[in-house]
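Final report, results section. Input specification for complex C-07:
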Amino acid sequence: MSLTVEELVKFIDHTRLKPETKRAKILELCEEALAYEFATVCINPVHVEYAIDLLKNSSVDVCVVVGFPLGATLSEVKAFETKQAVQKGATEVDMVINIGALKDKNYDLVQSDIKAVVSAADDAIVKVILETGFLIDEEKQKACLICKDAGAHFVKTSTGFGPMGATPYDVRLMRETVGPDMGVKAAGGIRSFKDALRMIDAGANRLGTSSGVAIVEGFRWAGYSDTFLEPDKPCWTCPSRQASLGKQPKEVYLWYKQRCVTCPHRDQNVFND
Amino acid sequence: MTDEVSQSYSDTKLLRISLTNQTVKQQELTPELFTYYLGGRGLGVKLVYDQVIPAISPLAPENLLVFAIGPLTASSAPTGGRVAVITKSPLTGTIFDSNCGGHFGPQLRRAGYAALVLQGRAKSPTYLWINDGDVEFRSAKDVWGQEVSSSTDYLLDETNAKAQVACIGPGGENRVSLAAIMNDKHRAAGRGGVGAVMGAKHLKAIVIHGTKQISINDPEKLDLVVNRTRRLIKKDSITNNSLPVYGTAVLVNLINEYGMLPTYNFQEGTFNDAEGVSGEKLLERFFTKRYHCFGCPIGCGRISQVQGTEVGGPEYETIWALGPQCGINNLEWITTANHRCNELGLDTISVGSTIGCAMELMQKGYLQSTHEFGKTAELLNLIDDIAHVRGLGKELGQGSKALATRYNAPQLAMQVKGLEMPAYDPRGVQGHALAYATSNRGGCHLRAYLIGPEILGSPVLVDRDRVEGKAGLVILFQNLSAAMDSLVLCRFTTFAFSVEDYADLLSAATSLTISGKEFLKIGERIWTLERLFNIREGFSAKDDCLPPRFSTPLPEGGSRNRVSHLEEMLPEYYRLRGWDKTGQPTKSCLKQLNL
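Structure output:
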């Protein structure tokens, strides 16, 4: 993959979503976004006005999260949160899907929830976070199709607060499901330029990460050795390796682990690599 | 790259000092020396290569001892406070540079010198008092035989309390091959026996006080680059969190988890009591405050308190060498032993590793001794004996290679080219194994710190078991280290910086406009010149090897069943270096590097 630093930065939503975030951190985030010319800063709605002020007259947009991180609030509340944020200047909205309804196969509720946000967002871009760590493949695919039908602009893998981060496997699955015209955002656990390039290679056209600076700075090393970009052992990036009984529903955990049984790379799955 | 020599850096001179004649002579830093070798390690290597007679004894008066700073020393560049000491090593017989933090380097620069080039031997114990360009040879008879702290305090009383002291302890005075040169009492140019070379010259100390302003070619540009690089240090989790909070000892638990914490003289890779000697435990039990070298925003140094006394350290390598390497789990004792080594002016890595070697020699029946793995009894006395060349200590003071050879078990010395290997079992990291074997100064983790990419994921995680591509990666980091050591900046900056950042700092501080690739080329030139020195001294490809132990799998832990695959990587390493199959640089390689 040939990618310049200037192209890489435009993939990145420079993200700070920790609950204890102070204004000084938002200032730092925005200054970095300006310096590196990232696509957006991704923040909690409470900081939107401050960020808008800091980023005015720049190419960096403001993205807010809605119904975050559980996705379990009322559609009306998500819509209200969206409307308020957009009125204050946010141009991108990352909402969390109604995960419980999806697991219940209550697809109408899932879709109406997304539609409410899309409607409230007006012209703003809407990305829908699936929180893939709670889902098996069929549920991810179904969620992608619902998002597409509901008029969302992107599907997004994870909140960063759930049981799994983004994996190339999930990104590829989502890209194949939504096709080339819809956005796919990878988020959660993207910490190095190698992670970033793997996601882009799998089909992501936006990356949510709090390690944007490290990714770009690290990317400068890639020009000095091809070894940095050598393929990893398959298990390193497989969602089944990340599966955790402590964080996931039992049936989801077992679904992931069942894949290992028939995996051709099973011999390489050693604990201490 | 422009050929114009930096006006800002060439205002410093080379100071040639004859200890035999007690004369000094200033020389210009020529454009060739600066543009091809920068300063620090590169400058020292060039001087030693050109001026040390081949095959000479490292302890002979004719051997050079060079203290060199670089173009970023005493500037606002992060970590720009280090000094390089370059000589022919009495421990390895190779060319050797030993790098020291603290505050000595900036005083040297402010006194107006890029390097002190010491030669000859004083008739009686001497120290140098360098005060803003004035040089005095003074008698050291009142401090000869004294330990490092008392020597330092005495010399500061005699000169100027604001001066800096680089001195040797009894170890250096007695020409022990494990002797260090100490600065700020507990910062060491530790490895390779550089302290013995100083002792052989009857030079107890250099006391230096410099107050001149240094000039920077483009102060505004340097401010910009410095602000950027300091921000990068603040953004990196290793330089902003791990190292400041726990010091380098943060590695104990991590490396143990990977099954690479050498235990019982590298017989095992997992130490059951690692938690008890970890950085976390050091923080809980003995830590009192952080120590920052000059201009360092990281502050990885530790000041600890044991038995009511404040002492420096210990660092990760020291904890390992005096701890797990010898089977010792007593952190209080390790901290005390580290302090004793500092006071005696001894390299903690080589001392601990050689004691571990002696313990295995005893365990296997080669050596009659009471020093068993895990037992601290009488070990502090043994360390004292090393420095004072007494009893078994006299044998240990020549290093593990000489010790194990003497007892007909050379395979039990965990060394490369005579230098004791540090705290990472190479079986668990293939690239790092190659870095050990090909290091120009012997078993060293700092010539190419592949632990960064292979374990810490800096700048990105690569498969530690793969051998493909590792030769190129080792060469990249060897060249970068050589160039960085010539600036002279701390190795820990590589966690946060990219190659271009070093080039940008250099370009801003001097008039040498340079790209990242050109910066690496300078490092390659220095590396190759070191190789030429070693070849001239009789070293060859057969010395690019590891002890046979590393062909035997580790029995358990996170690196179990692993062995080193050095032979698979070496041919590629030589080819990429432009060397022939015997490890000799080819003519075209030398021509390309202007050598």
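Strands of chain A lie at 12-16, 40-43, 61-66, 92-96, 125-129, 154-156, 183-187, 206-209. The domain at 5-226 of chain A is CATH 3.20.20.70 (TIM Barrel). This concludes the modelling results for the funded period.
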